[in-house]
Each structure stands twice: as C-alpha cells, then as structure tokens.
Amino acid sequence: MNELEHPTGDPYGAKDGKDLISGITVFPMEPHVPRKADIDPKAAIRAERQVATMFGLSSLMIILFIVAYIQVPADLLITIPVIGTLNANHLAIGFTFGMAILLIGLGAIHWAKKLMPDEEVIQERHALTSTNEERAAVQSSLQRGAAESGFKERKIIRRSLLGALALFPVPLIVLLRDLGPLPGTRLRETIWDEGIHLVTDATYKKIKASDIPLGGLINAVPENLLEIEHEEHNLNQRGKASIIIVRMDPADIVSQQGEAWDYQGVLAFSKICTHLGCPTSLYQQRTHHLLCPCHQSTFDLSDSGNVVFGPAARRMPQLAITVDAEGYLVAQSGFNEPVGPSFWERG
C-alpha cells in the first residue's frame, strides 16, 4: 500500500480521530442547526426589515451630519457631566458620522448572521494549480453565493444599502470646506508694490545701499507689513514677502530677470526656496550661490537666481529695486512671478 493512501478511505486520512499524514487530531463537524429565519418566513422578513432599518438610519445620520455641520456654530461649547466641556459642532458631526459608519457595519453583520447561508463547508486539499473545471466551479460557487445572499431578491435591503453607501462619501466631501477658502490668486500675489521700502526683518528699519557691505546679506520685508501686523493671515503675507538682499560687485552680475533690477550691485530675491518652501539665507560670497538648508537646492544669484544644483525646478524670484530721494531702497514693483514652491496651477 502506498504510504499516502488512507486505509479508511477517508479523503482526509482520519482514523480514530487522527490525520494519518499530519498526526493532528481532527474532530467531526457538528450537524447544521437551521436558524429561525431559515425555517420561518416571518422571521426572515423581520430580519430583512431590521437590516433595512439600520441602512436607512445610516442614511438619516448622514443627513443629520450635514445639518449639524451647517447649523451648529463652530464655537458653541457644551458641558457634559463627568466628560467635561466639549465643542458642540465637533461632537455633533463626530457622533452622526460615526453612527452612520456603525449602522452600515451592524446592518451588514445582521444580514450575514440572519439571512445569508451559515453552513460550514470543507475544501479538500488540492494542487496549487487549478484546472479549468475547478475554475468553472469557483465561478459557479461565487454566482451561487451571490444568489443565496439574497441581494437580488431582497429589494428592500438592496435599495437601503445602496442608498446608505451612496450617501456615505458626502461627509468626506463636506469636510473639504475645513481646508479653507480656495486660494484664488493668493498663491501668486504678495504685498510688494511700487515704492514700498525695504526694511530689516524684525526691527523694520529702512535700508540704504551704503548700509550693505560688499558680499553682505540682509533679511528684509516690505515696510507695509507693519500695517497688517495684527491682522489675520499676517504670517502668510510675511512668509510670501520675505526677501534677502545681497551686494556684489556689479561686474560679477552675469544676468538679471529684468533690465536694471539692481542698484549698484545690490539685488533682492525671494527668501523662500522654490522646491518646498524652506527659508534660505546661506549665501556664499565668492560664488554668489544661495544654498537651501533643507534639500541643498543651490541658486546662482549673479545669474538671475537660476538653479545650479538640487531638486528645485524654478529659479529664485527676483524683486526689482531702486532707491528713493533719500537713498533708501524701495521696490520698483511686485514680484513678476509667483514665489515659493511649485504648485499644480503653475506651468
């Protein structure tokens, strides 16, 4: 007798409760006990209505989520004993969205436990490569399972589930509003304009060209930043408008982004790296290179701020400058291109 053959004729090799090949004790399956919904049509209908009710309540919770998001003030606080003070808006939208998810899950579980087939089946061991007959059997099994689930026949469950799933993504779309207003032109514009003085960052002192030594660098901002110092989005404006001022020998200037944008070798560039928006101030006097400390993008300020190394794909924007009647540095205009890192609207 081949050692792999089973004297009992049992395909699982079971004899006296043991698998002859693995030696693992096996136990016979208990007989299947029908559920109430399997033998009582009224119980099946009742379970079907319970499942549909859960799916319907999930849809209702999504609607209540939208109502709460719109109607409950974002700054309304409520006090709950033991728990403490909570934001009413957060509590309302969190509860309704959580219940919507929970009810879909509970409905699916109840559907499976009460109405779908619950008989245990055994899959015999076989070779890893399936035959065409086995593949056809799997397809037939899947089709039979779909039919036995009652998805096609039980219209009330199907419709309520599809309704709940159709509404389920709505809160995710509504919550996009919390990302803030659409940027519009905010990513392209700064508060720089013609005639605005360049002032030192933090101290806001006006700068004369004579104050900057050859090879020197100054961090600066527009003077009108003082006017919006306490306004909302002030930090955004500061970040976009921050610049560096460098001075080099005019003979070392290879090119600029505009005609006569420097003043006696004094040039101004955006401080924000065009790769991912890191602030830059590492200036190499001999090479006139500006290095970003985050990812080592390097820009040649003597040659229109062009990229000479690193991941940045755009040059450093230059601010055209001149001097007023008293010799203080002022902007000729705003930046002629967006500052900061590249974004999806940029060509």
Key terms for this structure?
2 domains, five-stranded antiparallel beta sheet, Rieske Iron-sulfur Protein, 7 helices, alpha+beta, 347 residues, four-stranded antiparallel beta sheet
Describe this structure in words.
With 347 residues, the protein is of the alpha+beta class. It folds into two domains: 31-179, no CATH class; 198-331, Rieske [2Fe-2S] iron-sulphur domain (Rieske Iron-sulfur Protein, 3-layer Sandwich), CATH 2.102.10.10. 30% of the residues lie in helices and 15% in strands. It contains seven helices and 15 strands. A five-stranded antiparallel sheet has the order 5-6-7-8-13. α2 (41-71) packs antiparallel against α3 (88-114) and α2 runs parallel beside α5 (155-167). It is elongated and about 100 Å long.
Adjacency order of strands in the biggest sheet: 5-6-7-8-13
User: What integer is the average pLDDT?
Assistant: 85
Helix fraction, binned, reads: 25-40%
Total count of strands = 15
Using only CA atoms, what is the Rg?
36 Å
Q: In sequence order, what are the helices and strands, one letter per element?
A: EEHHEEHHHHEEHEEEEEEEEE
Major β-sheet, in short? 5 strands, antiparallel
- Number of individual domains: 2
Low-confidence stretches: 1-16
What structural class results from the helix and strand content? Answer: alpha+beta
Shape: elongated
SS field, number of helical segments? 7
Distance, first to last CA: 78 Å
Strand content: 5-15%
Record the SSE blueprint.
Layout: E1 14-15, E2 18-19, H1 36-39, H2 41-71, E3 77-80, E4 84-87, H3 88-114, H4 132-148, H5 155-167, H6 170-174, E5 198-200, E6 217-222, H7 234-241, E7 243-247, E8 266-270, E9 282-284, E10 289-291, E11 298-300, E12 306-309, E13 318-319, E14 321-323, E15 329-331
